[in-house]
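Entry:
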Amino acid sequence: GIVLVAINPYEQLPIYEQDVIYAYSGQNVGDMDPHIFAVAEEAYKQMARDEKNQSIIVSGESGAGKTVSAKYAMRFFATVGGSASDTNIEGKVLASNPIMEAIGNAKTTRNDNSSRFGKYIQIGFDKRYHIIGANMRTYLLEKSRVVFQAEDERNYHIFYQLCASAGLPEFKDLGLSECT
């Protein structure tokens, strides 16, 4: 399959705008510069042509921009599938992400807010190739972080949030006591 190496520039660039989506839509993968939209277009085209499920694997180190790349691919599918304004599918699929991040993100030596989750996002299309729904499954990858952290790293953010809130009256009703 196609392999794209992307680098997280840690700043917003104008290479993910709506006009860039339209520039890659309908193009062959080798006709344009390497881009997450080229990979998404190829998967979308093969899904429509072969009527078979397609997969895009986004992999990389902490802070590499995996979640952002997945968001851009979903935005591409929603736009070319004609469902971007109708359903805001990207927003709906990722709506649970802030809650999941509080529970499953931690400080690492490379990233202050690194996700410790693997994500599997399944997007459903109708016969006209419009997005009709999506499902996101998450998998906690680093259970060991609960009991051990390397120097200059932290446990999951939720641990510190719970400790900071332990004196609140709501915690008494929950049977939780202050952290020591």
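The chain has a mean pLDDT of 82.
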